[in-house]
Amino acid sequence: MDDIVLRLKKVNGQIQGLIRMMESRENCDKVIVQFQAAKAALDKTYSLVLNSSLQECMSQHDSENIEKILKLISKK
């Protein structure tokens, strides 16, 4: 869980950097690269959380929570 929090804090830093870039009207190519980096980091973190949640539910044979997670995923 500490790894997830650390990753989210890094993504937050990237987002704050994006805000500063937008406010200072940074070149759009630099902004796009930073957006892609932030999105990739958030996607990776999401995958880790999803994987961890599913493994936990599966190890406990918790089919109810597995169904809830699968429904959440399908709404994406």
TrEMBL record:
Q: Which Pfam families match?
A: Trns_repr_metal
Q: Which biological process annotations from GO are given for this protein?
A: negative regulation of DNA-templated transcription
Entry superkingdom: Bacteria
Q: Note the CDD domains from the entry.
A: CsoR-like_DUF156
What is a GO molecular function of this protein? DNA binding
Task: Give the family per the record.
Answer: Belongs to the FrmR/RcnR family.
Question: What is this protein called in UniProt?
Answer: Transcriptional regulator
**UniProt organism field:** Prosthecochloris aestuarii (strain DSM 271 / SK 413)
